[in-house]
Amino acid sequence: MATRAETVEFIEDQLSGLLVRTAKMFGEYGIYCDEKVVGLICDDALFIKPSDAAAELFARTEPAPPYPGAKFYHRVPGEALEDREWLMEAVQATADALPAPKPKKPRR
């Protein structure tokens, strides 16, 4: 089941206070915060990447793979997705805990 555009728009709206963008990725969506991949939107669900961010912040989530064969991420249930403040805090904490992306090599 593919993610609906309405789901992506809702998540983007919930995170509108942050520097966030989404991009199509493998038929689903990647979500970036501060130009770091912080999660995936798959099958109309948000999965936040595991990181060294405070574990208690993710008590509202459940471990689940975003797609078959993937490592476990923090799957955000519906009621937590509706909580804009918590969601922005969780996404920003994840971005802060992740290393900066490596610069891309220029094409020859």
Automatic annotation (TrEMBL):
The residues covered by the TfoX N-terminal domain are 20-97
Q: Which Pfam families match?
A: TfoX_N
InterPro entries, per database record: TfoX_N
Protein name from the UniProt record:
TfoX/Sxy family transcriptional regulator of competence genes
Q: Which organism is it from?
A: Microterricola gilva
UniProt lineage: Bacteria, Bacillati, Actinomycetota, Actinomycetes, Micrococcales
